[in-house]
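Re: [ENG-882] Designed sequences occasionally contain unexpected residues at chain ends

Forwarding the minimal case from QA. Structure tokens:
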């Protein structure tokens, strides 16, 4: 079995984040769930580091949601929608900090918080692959080039 790494991204409603990460090169699986104080809607991204690195995934994360919004994403409002990256090690923390600094230097008021990864709680089955199951498409996650 190939090497695997994990990344944890909270960018508003996990349905859209999961949907957009699922088809990225090197992503092996995605799981919608919760992490952190306030149980932020978080997506666990399992990836093959030989095919994609954490920095590439994190850049993508910042381009599929609005990292300047505080405790909301589009029409979804609440603490659980706060933008966050839960890092698993110091390397992920350093990469995330570097990208946040890059965005700030470009004039973005980044509200994304960085926290050490805690216990991840997978969401109920009906939340997994929500858009594939319902045939709907994300309503508050769109790709916007920022780097």
């Amino acid at each position: 079995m190939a090497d695997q790494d994990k990344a944890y991204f909270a960018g508003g409603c996990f349905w859209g984040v999961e949907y957009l990460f699922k088809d990225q090169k090197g992503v092996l699986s995605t799981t919608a769930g919760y992490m952190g104080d306030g149980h932020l809607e978080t997506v666990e991204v399992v990836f093959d580091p030989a095919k994609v690195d954490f920095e590439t995934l994190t850049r993508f994360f910042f381009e599929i949601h609005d990292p300047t919004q505080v405790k909301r994403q589009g029409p979804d409002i609440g603490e659980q929608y706060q933008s966050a990256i839960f890092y698993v090690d110091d390397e992920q923390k350093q990469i995330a900090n570097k990208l946040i600094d890059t965005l700030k230097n470009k004039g973005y008021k980044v509200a994304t918080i960085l926290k050490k990864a805690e216990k991840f709680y997978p969401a109920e089955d009906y939340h997994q692959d929500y858009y594939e199951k319902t045939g709907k498409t994300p309503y508050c996650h769109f790709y916007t080039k920022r780097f």
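QA comment: On inspection the terminal residues look reasonable. The longest strand covers residues 27-35. Proposing we downgrade this to a documentation issue.
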